[in-house]
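User: Reviewer 2 asked us to show a designed sequence for the structure in our supplementary figure. I'm pasting the structure tokens here. Could you produce the per-position amino acids so we can include them in the response letter?
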């Protein structure tokens, strides 16, 4: 048999009677043993059924995966299939796992399994798991459930680093802000502040949901690509720094973080569509200051959004002020409180990585200066800025231009110097095309 068969292809051939159950079993086992792709192996596990492999063979395979597989998610899937198909026979491998497994996710899954079971035989598992977590709790000085998160971190941070976490027994969260790269702040056996900065974290474990008292979380300068739904359970969180990661999309749970007052998202990729809940968060935390400064409420939310993605508050400057031409993070408004000028000129600390579609909500905008940033794309919605006269996007990473750029009928000056642009769309006026560079 061809070992390159995908799990679905194996299943389809079995359904069509093109291969026997024995042949399918052998192929599934080959995939599990030889594939280095986590998703493929998990998919294979989901397709394996005891009617295919035979009860004893299925149990032995799942037991081996639970005890010896290096991937925690594979071990989690093995637990779920074992408890479903072999609830009593699995007690011994579960006992071994409770004593030896170092994954918080695996132990958390076992905890969910034994707590939801009515089997009297599982009482010993509950006690063993409680003892294991209590031992870890004494070691760290925090409540048992919170140790699961630290165990999960161990899969991404070297144990030699993790065990030297600097622990602050303090209510003062500022203690954890400006110290070593990996620290946490503890008060009354609960983690209040956590700083895992520049540690190579690739994902946030779902066991973070157990940090029920967490108020400060700094995960800046890591490799995180997406955010788990478990993050939404941190209802006491006040400060969240996710800057300089690899986020390319944002979940829609921000309004569930009722206590969140400060959010930082700068130096990420183009996060795409801005979820409605993030706008609600901006309105709650960032817009009010701009409204007090006389900005139209809808446009104040756009300024607040830019604040989250640059980390810098944008200050109001009168257009007639001599400082306007020199300011880097500033805006000015017309007599009706509508934003008519916006400057976010990047530097090493504060740079904008994308322009949100909501830029179109600044419909009275006449000057837009986003020079010296990390912008790769201009949104199509920019074509709705019918009053825009000056557009400066010099020194970015723009490689293509939206067709809507030619809809900027009031445009007088355009600067796209020092980008990766390939061409200017047909129909853009010569006056804009060959204008002198702006600051």
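Assistant: Here is a per-position design you can include in the supplement:
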């Amino acid at each position: 048999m061809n070992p390159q068969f995908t799990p679905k292809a194996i299943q389809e051939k079995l359904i069509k009677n093109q291969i026997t159950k024995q042949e399918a079993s052998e192929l599934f086992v080959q995939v599990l043993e030889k594939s280095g792709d986590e998703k493929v192996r998990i998919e294979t596990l989901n397709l394996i059924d005891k009617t295919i492999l035979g009860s004893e063979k299925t149990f032995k395979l799942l037991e081996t995966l639970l005890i010896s597989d290096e991937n925690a998610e594979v071990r989690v899937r093995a637990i779920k299939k074992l408890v479903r198909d072999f609830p009593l026979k699995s007690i011994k491998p579960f006992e071994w796992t409770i004593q030896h497994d170092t994954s918080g996710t695996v132990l958390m899954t076992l905890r969910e399994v034994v707590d939801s079971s009515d089997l009297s035989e599982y009482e010993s598992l509950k006690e063993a798991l409680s003892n294991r977590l209590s031992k870890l709790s004494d070691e760290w000085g925090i409540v048992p459930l919170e140790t699961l998160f630290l165990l999960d971190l161990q899969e991404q941070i070297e144990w030699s680093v993790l065990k030297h976490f600097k622990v602050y027994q303090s209510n003062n969260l500022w203690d954890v802000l400006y110290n070593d790269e990996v620290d946490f702040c503890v008060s009354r056996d609960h983690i209040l502040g956590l700083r895992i900065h520049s540690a190579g974290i690739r994902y946030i474990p779902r066991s973070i949901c157990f940090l029920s008292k967490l108020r400060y979380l700094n995960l800046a300068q890591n490799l995180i690509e997406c955010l788990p739904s478990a993050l939404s359970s941190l209802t006491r969180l006040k400060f969240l720094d996710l800057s300089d990661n690899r986020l390319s999309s944002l979940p829609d749970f921000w309004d569930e973080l009722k206590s969140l007052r400060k959010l930082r998202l700068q130096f990420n990729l183009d996060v795409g569509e801005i979820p409605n809940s993030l706008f609600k968060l901006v309105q709650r935390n960032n817009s009010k200051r701009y409204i007090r400064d006389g900005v139209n409420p809808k446009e104040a939310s756009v300024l607040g959004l830019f604040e989250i993605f640059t980390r810098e508050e944008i200050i109001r400057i009168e257009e007639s002020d001599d400082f306007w031409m020199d300011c880097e993070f500033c805006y000015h408004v017309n007599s009706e409180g509508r934003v008519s000028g916006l400057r976010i000129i990047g530097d090493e600390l504060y740079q904008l990585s994308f322009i949100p579609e909501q830029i179109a909500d600044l419909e009275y905008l006449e000057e837009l200066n986003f020079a010296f940033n990390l912008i790769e794309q201009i949104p199509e919605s920019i074509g709705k800025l019918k009053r825009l006269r000056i557009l400066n996007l010099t020194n970015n990473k723009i490689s293509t231009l939206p067709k809507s750029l030619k809809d900027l009928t009031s445009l007088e000056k355009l600067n796209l110097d020092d980008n990766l642009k390939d061409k200017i769309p047909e129909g853009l006026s010569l006056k804009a095309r060959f204008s002198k560079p702006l600051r």
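For the response letter, you might also mention the following. Confidence is low (pLDDT under 50) at residues 426-439. The chain has three domains: 7-140, 148-245+259-271, 314-433.
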